[in-house]
Specification:
The complex is a heterotrimer of chains A (about 325), B (about 300) and C (about 350). Chain A has one domain: 3-Layer(aba) Sandwich (Rossmann fold), CATH 3.40.50.300. Chain A contains eleven helices and twelve strands. Chain A has helices at about 5-10, 60-70, 90-100, 120-130, 135-150, 165-175, 195-210, 225-230, 245-250, 255-265, 305-310, and strands at about 10-25, 35-45, 50-55, 75-80, 85, 100-105, 185, 215-220, 230-235, 240-245, 315-320, 320-325. Chain A has an eight-stranded mixed beta sheet with strand order 6-7-8-3-9-10-12-11, with helices on both faces. In chain A, strands 2-1-4-5 form a four-stranded antiparallel beta sheet. In chain A, strand 9 (about 230-235) and strand 10 form a beta hairpin. Chain B is an all-alpha fold and about 300 residues long. Chain B has a single domain (about 40-305), classed as Orthogonal Bundle (MetI-like fold), CATH 1.10.3720.10. In chain B, helix 3 (about 35-55) crosses helix 4 (about 95-130), helix 6 (about 150-165) runs antiparallel to helix 7 (about 165-175) and helix 7 crosses helix 10. The longest helix of chain B has about 35 residues, at about 95-130. The radius of gyration of chain B is 24 Å and the shape is flat. By secondary structure, chain C is an alpha/beta fold. Chain C contains twelve helices and twelve strands. In chain C, helix 5 crosses helix 6, helix 6 (about 140-155) packs across helix 8 (about 175-185) and helix 8 (about 175-185) packs parallel to helix 9. The radius of gyration of chain C is 21 Å and the shape is globular. Classes of the chains: A alpha/beta (about 325), B mainly alpha (about 300), C alpha/beta (about 350). Chains A and C meet through helix 6, helix 7, helix 8, helix 9 and helix 10 of A and helix 8, helix 9, helix 10, helix 11 and helix 12 of C.
């Protein structure tokens, strides 16, 4: 699990200069539609077997990026390649086959389950879709999977609303993993759970990763969880990655002022840590109307005229650390 | 504390359950405990359906058989009534009961088939609009707006007068009435359903669109559509009655409840039973269907079970 | 730094004066078709002026219901079956509905989780605040508007004159929550109840709002009840903490004592299961199982099945509160004593 090992392992996903625009409301009745730059030129690699944490505040484009990687939405520009194959240009048949290789685990487990189907039939669904194995062997596989997520088999005949939140999320995970994906995007997958249950699910995700050799892209707003689960962390701000580094390097030695502010803002369960707090002022800018230069300059304590006019380049500082700041 | 309270309530509940009569027990089994109005409505609907299907076996007279010596004879429960014509006779001496049975048959047929036509047509168009979005949606929703702003009775009269009157045309015309409600409803439900995480989830699992709709979207919107149909069904029956009442619906020798009502209009003072009886049948039928529709809406939601 | 000092004086202050609000044995029952569930079970709380009481618990622990019951804002199927709520030595549960309404907007105010749904979308922010002032305080519309502008400024909304005429959708989440706080404190309440005020907000905004709340608390000498599921927020903002589990308060302590030396196994479990941004652990110590739903509430200790410290004595009888020193108490048969 050390970083050097991961660097050697193969690149499962290569993201290059991905841009994704959304059309917003019109500026006036006859005006142009406003364009939101949800993702605005993002590049990174995802190594097989690692967990990359993707952190940012609401509206920074982290969920959009997750969907771009899974090819659930098409990028406006840029390329996403999975094991060397550009998946933004593939045909429907290839796309469908790819679905069993990469999966998404949602934030709200109850919403991600069809209220009218039993747990069992929903976990089985991916096998039916991709015609995995014999019809009658599939139920065995479902039993195996439900055991893997530590749920009792009698729940298979229940409906989603009869389960607790933690159990529902285990079902969602079981459904995501039953087709044997290599890459799993967890979009705020544990954020809606109660603290004590959240820890169970996080541990489960870690165990499953070890057992099945999964690669995770772990999207969340919660730096505490990211620190715990990720080997590397990417921090997003207004559609761009502003800092990407090994977890420990990023949290112990943050270089981007936004990362520093974010870490400082996370409440720590220790009242003695109160004094060390530095809060930043202001709010994230509107993606329909991004500021010039560095998007963070209006809130940044270090910003000067250069930051206002020039977009900082995302630079590799050392082997483990890349940052987009003029003064890092 | 809480559990104790709950325990003390539950056993007494089941204890009374043991002593229930068959009606009460049946109601319990169908989830109808305490729902007397719904039960009555269901029984009434079942009775009407039975009459509509099997009525011909005990229809006392041919519905067209005239008995000119016994014109406008009152029903048996009024002065001057006789057991020969339980519900009396009309202006041509035709047996009202026989005509009711025959009329009911046709009214129910038109109501049910008409509703199905409207429901299927509207729902499919609504789903198509929601799936394709863009210009398809705009055109279809424009059609919906046209339909809404059209005085439908006039439209129906025009079509019937122009195309000519046959049972098929009549059923199609009454069926078309209301399609826009299903279209709007199914469109908005499919839109919200498609935005649900569970639909996004199965889509990201690679399920084909057809199967997403069949397995995940339709079952979740069907309940509401069925309820909409039960709300619409009385309207269809009433529309047929209105058209027949106006003389452009069912043509003699066929008869429907609305047509009987139309004939009875002329004799409201002299022989009220001709109009009042079919009127009451229609009133209670539409009311019952509406009551059952409300009840169904609650029953079809699995999260409320 | 100043925070910590404030904190010390508050604690002293508290010991001397009688509490502003004292809840005694509050029990709330919810009636459902399946039977009645007692979702809040003999809850005792107190809070003094200038002090923040943190009420922490997971979903379904009854923390929000407790506060709604205190203000008599329970939905139709919830009812208080026991207890008293003494506010300035007056039992709120015995007040007339009119007096209560008067009190609610004025001396006691509330801030909710989602500011976006608490604001009327078709009225300007300024109108909503000044109208409530105009109605509650019997002051002229002009005076209300002046006061509203002051309040918007006080809660840190930039350019209050412009923002006054804007609608809720033009406000970001953080700004809406500031506006809600402005509305809540406009009448200078003695008690502010904040129900998950930062849960819907981003962390950087959360830090700002927490700072604002604690600033306002000391400036206006209010008592603050902060309801949250987040122990981090508690550590950040509370002076006293009450931990709720399955409808009961299981532990009450000053914030430093609670985090230094949690005594209830649930509190300890909760702390251990938290991932932390300031240190790396190999594996989270999750509490097995999940909190019981209200229809499975038992008379004995409700944490027993998930607890590693239990024995036969935990079953059947409700664990009484044990006083530990003067300032804290814990409802456990076998409280954890070593730190």
């Amino acid at each position: 699990m050390t970083n050097t090992m991961e660097k050697k392992s193969e690149i499962i996903m290569k993201v290059r200069d991905v841009v994704c625009h959304f059309a917003g409301p019109r500026t006036s009745f006859f005006g142009e539609r406003m364009i939101a730059h949800a993702v605005n030129g993002v590049s990174f690699d995802l190594y097989a077997g690692e967990t990359l944490g993707l952190v940012g505040e609401s509206g920074c484009g982290k969920s959009t990026l997750g969907q771009l990687i899974l090819n659930l939405i098409e990028p406006t520009a840029g390329s996403v390649s999975y094991l060397g194959q550009d998946i933004t240009t593939i045909d429907t048949k290839e796309w469908r086959r790819l679905r069993s290789e990469m999966q998404l685990v949602f934030q709200n487990p109850l919403g991600a389950l069809n209220p009218r189907l039993t747990i069992g039939s929903q976990i089985r669904e991916p096998l039916d879709i991709h015609h995995v194995g014999d019809e009658d062997k599939r139920d065995d596989k479902v039993l195996e999977m439900i055991a893997a997520v530590s749920l009792p088999p009698h729940l298979l005949d229940r409906y989603p609303h009869q389960l607790s939140g933690g159990q529902q999320q285990r079902v969602v995970i079981a459904r995501a993993l039953i087709s044997g994906p290599k890459l799993v995007v967890c979009d705020e997958s544990v954020s809606a759970l109660d603290v004590s249950v959240q820890a169970q699910v996080v541990n489960l995700l870690v165990d499953l990763q070890k057992k099945l050799g999964l690669t995770y892209l772990f999207i969340t707003h919660d730096l505490s969880i990211v620190r715990h689960i990720s080997s590397r962390i990417a921090v997003m701000y207004l559609g761009r990655i502003v800092e990407l580094a090994d977890s420990e390097a990023l949290l112990e030695n943050p270089m981007h002022p936004y990362t520093k502010a974010l870490i400082s803002a996370v409440p720590v369960p220790d009242p003695r840590a109160r004094a060390s707090r530095t809060t930043i002022t202001g709010e994230p800018p509107n993606p329909f109307n991004p500021p010039s230069g560095c998007a963070f300059h209006a809130r940044c304590p270090q910003a000067d005229s250069k930051c206002q006019s020039l977009i900082p380049v995302f630079l590799q500082i050392d082997e483990k650390h890349a940052v987009a700041c003029h003064y890092a | 504390m809480t559990t104790k309270q709950a325990d003390s309530v539950m056993p007494s509940h089941t204890a009374t359950g043991v002593k229930r009569g068959w009606l009460s027990a049946t109601m319990h089994r169908w989830g109808l405990s305490g729902e007397w109005l719904v039960t009555a409505a269901l029984i009434y609907i079942a009775f009407i359906l039975f009459i509509a299907v099997f009525g011909f076996t005990f229809q006392p007279y041919e519905h067209t058989k005239q008995d000119l010596f016994n014109q406008l004879q009152p029903p048996v429960f009024m002065d001057g009534g006789s057991w020969d014509h339980i519900f009396g006779t009309d202006d041509l001496g035709r047996d009202v009961l026989s005509r009711l049975i025959k009329g009911l048959q046709l009214s129910v047929l038109i109501g049910v088939v008409g509703t199905v036509i409207g429901a299927v047509l509207g729902s499919v168009l609504g789903i198509v609009a929601a799936h394709f979005r863009g210009w398809v949606e705009e055109v279809l929703m424009m059609l919906v707006d046209v339909q809404v702003s059209l005085p439908f009775i006039i439209f129906a009269l025009a079509v019937l007068a122009f195309v000519g009157n046959s049972l098929t045309v009549l059923i199609i015309v009454v069926g078309i009435d209301g399609w826009e409600r299903y279209a709007r409803l199914s469109r908005s439900m499919v839109l919200s359903c498609n935005a649900q995480d569970y639909v996004r989830a199965v889509r990201s699992l690679g399920l084909s669109n057809y199967k997403i709709y069949r397995r995940h979207v339709l079952p979740n919107i069907l309940g509401t559509l069925v309820v909409q149909a039960t709300i619409n069904l009385p309207g269809v029956i009433l529309l047929e009655s209105t058209l027949s009442f106006l003389g452009l619906g069912v043509q003699p020798p066929m008869t429907s409840l609305g047509q009987i009502l139309g004939v009875g209009r002329d004799y409201l003072i002299l022989a009220p039973w001709i109009a009042v009886l079919p009127g009451m049948v229609i009133f209670f039928l539409t009311l019952s269907i509406a009551v059952v529709g409300d009840w169904l809406r609650d029953r079809l939601d699995p999260t409320l079970k | 730094m100043s925070n910590t000092q404030n904190h010390g004086t508050n604690a002293d202050h508290m010991a001397a004066s009688p509490p502003l609000l004292e809840v005694r044995g509050l029990s709330v029952v919810f009636d459902t078709p399946e039977g009645s569930h007692q979702v809040v079970d003999h809850v005792d709380l107190k809070v003094s002026s200038g002090q923040t009481l943190g009420l922490v618990g997971e979903s379904g622990s009854g923390k929000s219901v407790t506060c709604l019951a205190m203000l008599r804002l329970l939905a139709a199927r919830g009812r208080v079956i026991n207890g008293e709520v003494l506010f300035q030595e007056q039992d709120l549960l015995k007040l007339s509905e009119d007096d209560m309404t008067q009190l609610r907007g004025c001396k006691i105010a509330m801030v909710f989780q989602d500011p976006m749904v608490s604001l009327n979308p078709v009225r300007t922010i300024g109108w909503q605040i000044s109208e409530s002032l105009h109605l509650h305080q019997n002051i002229s519309r002009e005076a209300a508007k002046r006061r509203t502008l002051e309040m918007l400024d006080l809660v840190g909304i930039p350019e209050p004159k412009t923002r006054y005429n804007e609608y809720p959708h033009q406000f970001s989440g953080g700004m809406s929550q500031r506006a809600m706080i402005a509305m809540a404190i406009a009448c200078e309440p003695k008690l502010l109840i904040a129900d998950e005020p930062t849960t819907a907000l981003d962390v950087t905004i959360q830090a700002q709002i927490l700072e604002l709340l604690s600033q306002l608390k000391s400036d206006l000498d209010m008592a603050l009840i902060l309801i949250t599921h987040d122990l981090g927020v508690i550590a950040e903002a509370a002076d006293e903490v009450a931990v709720m589990y399955a409808g009961r308060v299981v532990e009450e302590a000053p914030v430093f004592d609670l985090f230094d030396n949690p005594m209830h196994p649930y509190t300890l479990g909760l702390l251990n299961s938290l991932p932390r941004v300031d240190r790396k652990v190999d594996r989270l110590n999750a509490i097995e199982g999940s909190a019981p739903p209200p229809h499975e509430f038992v008379e004995g200790c409700r944490f027993e099945q998930r607890c590693g410290h239990c024995d036969d004595s935990c079953t059947g009888t409700r664990p009484d509160f044990k006083n530990i020193g003067t300032s804290r108490r814990v409802a456990c048969m076998h409280p954890i004593t070593t730190s």
